[in-house]
Design brief:
The chain has about 625 residues and is α+β, with helices and mostly antiparallel strands. It has 22 helices and 23 strands. It has a seven-stranded mixed sheet. A five-stranded mixed sheet has the order 20-19-18-21-22, sandwiched between helices. The model is unreliable at about 55-70 (pLDDT under 50).
């Protein structure tokens, strides 16, 4: 049997993954086909792209997280290829020497070795060799931001990253000569931040990935004497530089990613050589586990844990259907609002997350009542037990009174491209290509058709300025309320447009300041309600809760509670599909384009109409006896 890097990572998750993957004894002697390897690699790359596309809300939940990868998402792979191509260019500039690089996997540098009847195989994104070193570069379509955010400081001092960038390569501070970490932060805080890079199920995911690659390479060299080298082998993670700003240079209508005005390259490198060395024993141990799992093929249940990667883009494919199938889709013990810290048991120990499921606390009401300490959690339980919604009419009424008319119900559709496409953009900027606007001139006075205005880009040309003009044509920056579900997203796009197009900055920032979130009415905004006279505890409590919300205030949960509006019959049903349809513009026939263009308009229009409907439903709630 052939063990690819992806297979190794998956088969060492937990004891039962191998068996659940339908491994048969006769397959242990089978070789992997090139198509199978390509399919694995393609799936991984799509997961990376999706991970970069989506932000998280204030509760850490993915916005518009899809359950599976739609085949149409493959249109996004062209952007991944562009990331790889641009990386190869910057590798040549940074490391010199000669590189082996190819978009087609079969033309990449490959290392193999055999052990106990298993063949281990890995292809390298970029293999670079110069006079003194061999550089192994793994390309990931993520950004540098999450790594540079690993930072700390001394009290009342500016924060410093644990990384230092020198000539576009980021080095850990403890690897630099004459670098005294205590000059930047306490050593203990540095070590705490650094240790996060060694957790394979969180921030250290790609570091572990490269550590597996190193394990394959070193074993291949040891087994094949022809590969022996006296050169030092270095390992690098290549990612998109979140600080890079595209200057708008094009040749033949294609962007040219020059070094930006601040000296940033599109791609930056993290030297992870020492980190992957530290993970060597971990990977070697995992290799033994892999052999055990393949030999035993034990499909019996095991405890849920971090290896399930629950509610992340990398969640185990067997979680929903098999391992976590006992978790109810609604009102499980995991659906208590903002409960990342879990509960404190009678003996003083804390239990949280999947540990609750492992110990049999599966449903919301399985949690002992004496564990409940938060008012919001008591109210959730009461709404479930009594099957009666909770509503604080006085607080909701006060929130509604803060709205100034006209209300501009606004929703953007954006294209979070890995590589910036237009001047002033950066990697994964949420670049607006569509907006829908419903204008409510007085309470309840809004027509779905007559009071709706939509702008949708007709091409992949830069139509951002036309979008701004259309917005300002219909929205008066000097009056009214900018209204949205998760308004921080809309405000963020407006602020970005203001910085890129200074001509419209004054009016756009006026709109920005008029933002109001639908969630402040259904859920809460503790700061606002405290300013309106509520005590801190009451200000933190949601204004409305129904058992059907199951611990979430997302639009997908709130809309069915207040309306019979549905996205089920729409041709474009969610934000992911909207991104894909826009991405596929150049590949569409004229007839298909016209159909999809209208489908995008209909979808975005429904998003803003849904807010109008929910707002009216809230007004009616406070009038009910």
């Amino acid at each position: 049997m052939t063990i690819s890097k992806t297979t190794f990572i998956n088969y060492t998750r937990c004891p039962r993954y191998c068996s659940l993957d339908n491994i048969k004894k006769e397959r242990l002697n089978a070789d992997i086909t090139y198509k199978e390897y390509q399919d694995e690699e393609k799936f991984d790359k799509l997961l990376e792209l999706i991970s970069g596309m989506y932000d998280e809300d204030e509760e850490g939940n993915d916005i518009d997280l899809i359950d599976k990868i739609d085949p149409q998402l493959e249109a996004m792979l062209d952007y991944y290829k562009q990331v790889e191509i641009e990386t190869a260019k910057i590798v040549k500039k940074t490391f010199k020497g000669n590189s082996i690089f190819a978009i087609d996997t079969k033309d990449q540098k490959c290392f193999t070795f055999t052990k106990n009847g298993l063949k281990y195989l890995c292809y390298l994104d970029i293999y670079n060799e110069n006079d003194t070193d061999i550089n192994i570069i793994e390309v990931k379509a993520t950004t540098s931001n999450k790594y540079m955010k690993l930072s700390s400081s001394h009290p009342n001092q500016p924060r410093h990253s644990i990384w230092t960038r020198i000539n576009n390569i980021n080095y850990l501070k403890d690897e630099l000569e004459n670098c005294n970490i205590e000059d930047y932060m306490p050593l203990k805080k540095y070590q705490d931040q650094r240790s996060k890079l060694l957790n394979r199920y969180k921030l250290g995911k790609y570091i572990y990935d490269i550590a597996v690659q190193r394990y394959f390479i070193e074993n291949a060299i040891a087994q094949n004497k022809e590969l022996t080298t006296n050169k030092k082998i270095n390992y690098y993670l290549a990612v998109l530089n979140h600080e890079y700003i595209f200057d708008g240079t094009y040749e033949d209508n294609k962007p040219i990613y020059n070094t930006d005005d601040n000296g940033n390259e599109l791609i930056t490198f993290f030297n992870v050589t020492k980190l992957v060395e530290e993970l060597h024993n971990v990977v070697a141990t995992d290799d033994k586990l892999l052999e055990e799992h393949l030999t035993n093929l034990d499909a019996s249940p095991c405890k849920l844990g971090p290896y399930c990667e629950y509610k992340t883009k990398n969640q185990c494919k067997f979680f929903n259907t098999i391992c976590g199938s006992m978790i109810p889709k609604k009102n499980s013990s995991l659906n208590y609002i903002k409960n990342g810290q879990g509960f404190v048991k009678e003996d003083g120990t804390r239990i949280k997350g999947l540990e609750l499921i492992n110990e049999g606390y599966i449903n919301m009401l399985d949690i002992p009542e004496n564990w409940i300490t938060r008012k919001t959690h008591h109210l959730q339980r009461d709404a479930l037990i009594k099957e009666t919604p909770y509503i604080n009419k006085e607080k909701l009424k006060l929130g509604l009174e803060q709205l100034e008319y006209p209300i501009y119900h606004l929703d953007f559709e954006t294209f979070p491209c890995p590589v910036p496409r237009f001047k002033g953009e950066w990697p994964y900027i949420q670049s607006p290509f569509e907006f829908s606007l419903h204008i409510e001139n007085a309470p309840g006075i809004c027509d779905n058709d007559k009071d709706n205005f939509v702008f949708l880009a007709k091409s992949h040309e830069d139509e951002r300025e036309e979008l701004i003009k259309a917005m300002l044509k219909y929205m008066d920056p000097n009056k009214g309320t900018l209204f949205a579900q998760n308004v921080a997203f809309e405000k963020g796009r407006i602020k970005e447009l203001a910085s890129i197009f200074p001509k419209y900055k004054e009016d756009l920032l006026k709109l920005y300041k008029r933002g109001f979130d639908l969630l402040w009415l259904v859920d809460t905004n503790s700061k606002m309600y405290e300013e309106l006279g509520y005590e801190e505890e009451d200000a933190k409590v949601f204004n409305f809760y129904d058992k059907r919300l199951s611990g979430s205030f997302s639009i997908k949960k709130t809309l069915p509670v207040f309306s019979d509006l549905s996205y089920a019959n729409l041709d474009v049903k969610n934000g992911t599909e909207a991104i894909v349809e826009y991405a596929n513009y150049p590949k569409m026939s004229k007839e298909e384009f016209n159909f999809k263009y209208q489908a995008l308009i209909t979808y975005c229009k429904q998003d803003t109409w849904a807010m109008v409907v929910i707002l009216e439903a809230l007004r009616k709630l406070i009038k009910e006896k």
